[in-house]
């Protein structure tokens, strides 16, 4: 659990640094208000809760080389 803006940003940086070594793919972190009473006060908009927000990582880019193409006609 973290508190305050700096805590959120520090957590985002720490998870981002571990991203490549995780056994699963992630594209960001989600910040969520922990208090149920505060969650109820914040409520929802449309289909999304106001008590949670996603902070996405920048897109990963990679260079690849196309080695072969198989063409099939049906």
Overview of this structure, please?
This protein has helices spanning 4-18, 36-42, and strands at residues 28-32, 44-45, 48-49, 52-56. The protein is α+β, with helices and mostly antiparallel strands and 74 residues long. The chain has one domain: Dna Ligase, domain 1, CATH 3.30.1490. It has a two-stranded antiparallel sheet. A two-stranded antiparallel ribbon has the order 2-3. The chain is elongated. The mean pLDDT is 92.
Shape: elongated
Q: Show unreliable segments.
A: none
The largest sheet has its strands arranged as 1-4
Structural class: alpha+beta
- Classify the beta-strand content into a percent band: 15-25%
Major sheet attributes = 2 strands, antiparallel
Q: What is the N-to-C order of secondary-structure elements (H for helix, E for strand)?
A: HEHEEE
CATH class: Alpha Beta
Number of domains: 1
User: What name is given to the CATH topology?
Assistant: Dna Ligase, domain 1
Highlighted features:
Dna Ligase, domain 1, two-stranded antiparallel ribbon, alpha+beta, 2 helices, 4 strands
Give a quick summary of the entry.
The protein is α+β, with helices and mostly antiparallel strands. The protein has helices spanning 4-18, 36-42, and strands spanning 28-32, 44-45, 48-49, 52-56.
